[in-house]
Design brief:
Order of helices and strands: HEEEEEEEEEEEHEEEHEHEEHHHEEHH
Structural class: alpha/beta
Strand order of the largest sheet: 15-14-16-19-17-18
Strand content: 25-35%
Oligomer: single chain
Distance between the termini: 38 Å
Helix content: 25-40%
Largest sheet: 6 strands, mixed
């Protein structure tokens, strides 16, 4: 498949196929890093941040990425096989894609184009992309940020709003707070500034939560994570899913939004706007919608590494708690409380810690691939 047909297929659903691609090994200054591969339409791709391992500086935006490497600037655009380097336009056999919120380049760029055009600095041999001695400084896996990165954790429900209750008596509000507390510990160890919309069993209005997040952001790179546990009348339903703010497309998406928005019944004061108003207000800034979609993809991929599923995918709906947050924002349903087996797992502290670690790893990957957030938009 080539040309427009391939581009449309990748736009619709770039799909990773486990076990069919070999991770890329990158060596610089005697140190080796392993870069994970994904497969889309039968082609192997590697994340653009692999270039940072050989001394590059990459900035990712909503259109693609820009990489400074060996005194040159390489500009890639998602869904295009063309890229700019050395003042010229170059052509790849397959287009650049975005997978899991991260820009990925086709294998051809790493194993053919780089060695051919940077042969005095880069070689590819025996499955290893190697920077020749003195050509690059090996970048760390999690480079220190130029400024503090802020994560706002929003444990769902609280106070007289218990959320859903599992067959084992486990309450959603407790599970959400426990996972958020575990996640905060991991993130703080990694250097993030973490804030809670609630740090104890208290009721906080849904509309107040994004307003608090905006205050804590204070113009710095930040994200908003609302933590929940799912529930359904079908007690066999299970798995995990991540939502961003947009118009619901399916009955299931509307069901989850109605369930989580029902918390407004416990609040004093006027009711929030209708769902239509929520959508219109929430979509005023397309920049944050796109970034939130990327964050949802990345969080969902992180959960997939610690949760045996099923992976219910990234979804969209009109959640009150996400409206007005001036940062990438998602609502995570980590498992189904209505499912006896998953309720039992949620009661296990080790499983909650695993969930927290999966989300923390996703946060790392998101900030790494979205450095443009530092611009303070």
């Amino acid at each position: 498949m080539r040309g427009p047909a391939l581009v449309l297929a990748l736009l619709a659903a770039p799909t990773a196929v486990a076990g069919q691609a070999v991770d890329l090994r990158v060596e610089a200054n005697g140190r080796v890093a392993r870069v994970p591969a994904v497969v889309a339409e039968g082609t192997t791709y590697y994340p653009v941040w692999a270039l940072d391992r050989i001394g590059a500086e990459t900035v990712v935006d909503v259109r693609g990425s820009r990489t400074a490497l060996f005194g040159d600037t390489l500009v890639f655009r998602v869904l295009s096989p063309y890229f700019h380097a050395g003042g010229r336009v170059h052509h790849l056999a397959f287009p650049v894609i975005r997978h899991g919120g991260i820009v990925h380049l086709p294998e051809q760029f790493f194993i053919e184009w780089l060695p051919a055009n940077q042969g005095d600095r880069i070689e590819y041999r025996g499955g290893v992309l190697r920077a020749r001695r003195g050509a690059a400084t090996f970048a760390s896996t999690t480079p220190a940020p130029a400024e503090t990165r802020v994560v706002v954790l929003d444990p769902g429900h609280g106070g007289r709003d218990t959320g859903r209750i599992g067959p084992n008596g486990l309450r959603e509000k407790d599970v959400a707070l426990q996972i958020a507390q575990s996640l905060a510990r991991v993130l703080r160890e990694r250097g993030y500034e973490v804030h809670f919309t609630r740090s104890r069993d208290t009721l906080v209005a849904l509309t107040d939560r994004p307003r608090l997040a905006n205050q804590w952001r204070a113009g710095r790179p930040a994200i908003f994570l609302s933590i929940h546990a799912n529930s359904a009348s079908n007690t066999s339903a299970r798995g995990f899913e991540t939502f961003f703010l947009s118009e619901a497309r399916t009955e299931d998406e509307r069901r989850v939004a109605e369930m989580e928005n029902a918390s407004v019944q416990y609040e004093d004061g006027p009711s929030p706007a209708s769902e239509l108003d929520i959508i219109l207000n929430g979509l005023r800034n397309d920049f944050w919608v796109r970034a939130s979609s990327d964050l949802a993809e990345t969080v969902q991929a992180g959960l997939a590494t610690v949760h045996d599923g099923p992976n219910r995918g990234v979804k969209r709906a009109g959640f009150v708690v996400l409206v007005g947050a001036l940062m990438p924002s998602v609502l995570v349903e980590v498992a189904f409380l209505s499912n006896a087996a998953e309720a039992k797992r949620l009661a296990d502290a080790s499983f909650r810690d695993d969930v927290a670690t999966g989300i923390a790893d996703a946060v790392d990957r998101f900030f790494e691939s979205h450095r443009y957030l530092s611009s303070g938009r």
